[in-house]
Amino acid sequence: MSPRRKNDDHHEPDDPDIAQAMRERRQELGLSVPAMAARAGVSEQTWRNYEAGRTQVRGDKQAGVWEALEWEPPTHWRDLAGLRAILQGGAMPAGLGAGQSDFGAGFDGPDFDIPDEVFDAFEGSDTEDAAAEAADLPIPDWDYIPTVFSEVYSPRLARMLGEDAARCFALGTFLFDMSVAEDLEGLASLPRGAHLGQLDETHIGSTLPQLWLTRYDYEFVFQLRGTARDMTLRLTDAGPAGGEPLVRTMAEALVLHDILNLGGVIADSRGADIDEDRWEGWVDALSGPDQPAHALIAMGLVPPAEAPGHFDNWFKPLPDPFVPDWDGASDGSGSTTASGPADSTVTPLRRSH
User: Fold this and answer.
1) 18-74: CATH class
2) Distance CA 44, CA 186 (A)
3) Where are the domains of the chain?
4) Does residue 174 contact residue 203 with C-beta atoms inside 8 Å?
5) Nearest by Cα to 213 from 197, 233, 235, 237
6) Are 204 and 220 in contact (CB under 8 A)?
7) Hey, is 317 helix, strand or coil?
8) For residue 5, what are the contacts with CB-CB under 8 A and spacing of at least 6?
């Protein structure tokens, strides 16, 4: 820590006076705008926007900006950095160790060093049955999901389906990735050829069609995780083009369904008022009214070998993928937040719960 840094000099990106505080701190350090911008790793114009209050510091820029200002990191930066490390499979962010997350256990970063009890609320035979236990999950407040989960928050979804849909997807993506990581760790400890049915607990193994349970081995789960991450990147990086489908394979349909299921159930248990009809409606809007994932999960018969729903074809392109109405208006189920400039972030909406 710099000798000029004050331990009690704490600032948050959404403080009402943050623009003035940034300007005064730059002047206190004796730095020009270009020098400070270079030090923080942003453009000169971006820094001027910060000091003018035109844009808020985006989640992935906060660590560098706060370090340049010689301030303590924002409250939620550790959680954002830990999430990025988990989703990218990288190393533990500098200065973070087990248990250092401000939201408590479950956001500890890579190596998936997550207490078993964190998974109890959404692992087992049925996601809905576990909802009653979800209140104890170490999840950030609904207001802070766009900031803490900025890596997987999609402004495109917020514009298309509403703020609740975007937040539900971000929350579900984190829980899905965390659960898949636990499954991979469990399978890696078993002999080659082991499947999810041999694990004591598995969320993914309980939500995928049970017909092919013995074929859900390490390689399959690894590929499913890649499918989820690719879909998330496409949704968060401006989003697919107007005529482009989101769900291109049956695997993507299953992943999308489970992500919104997880996010919806856990968010609803925390007071976000997202029942099954709402999140199922978002699934329909993104994957099609024929509900390919739901139909496959509920299927009791073995589909024909050439059908998209057959296990051997899950990662093959769908013959007629559904194209969402990307430019359609929000369904009105939640406030939307337009995307800002490149270095801005979504402003959390204040809610009573």
Assistant:
1) mainly alpha
2) 48
3) 18-74, 115-313
4) no
5) 197
6) no
7) strand
8) 70, 71, 72
Where b means 16+ CB within 10 Å and e means fewer, 53-92 reads eebbbbbebbbebbbbbbbbbbbbbbbbbbbbbbbeeeeb
Instruction: Assess contact for 299 and 129: CB atoms under 8 A.
Output: no
CB 155 within 8 A of CB 237: no
pTM > 0.85: yes or no:
no
Per-residue pLDDT of the chain in tens (353 residues, 90 and over written 9): 333 434 447 888 878 899 999 999 999 999 999 999 999 998 999 999 999 988 888 766 777 898 899 998 776 555 555 544 544 443 333 333 333 333 322 333 323 233 344 434 444 434 444 444 444 456 777 888 888 788 889 999 999 999 999 999 999 998 898 889 889 989 999 999 999 999 988 888 888 998 999 999 999 999 999 999 999 989 987 778 778 999 999 999 999 999 999 999 888 887 888 989 999 999 999 999 888 888 888 777 888 999 999 999 999 999 999 999 988 754 434 333 333 333 333 333 333 33
Q: Which residues contact 190 (CB under 8 A, 6 or more apart)?
A: 198
Nearest one of 246, 251, 199 to 225, comparing CA atoms: 251
The rounded distance, in Å, linking the Cα atoms of 171 and 148 is: 10
Confirm if 162 and 330 have CB atoms less than 8 A apart: yes
- Count of CB atoms situated within 10 Å of the CB of 275: 12
User: Could you identify the residue written with the tokens 């009809």?
Assistant: 277
For 72, 97, 183, 241, 273, the CA distances from 266, given in Å and listed in that order, are 31, 26, 20, 30, 10
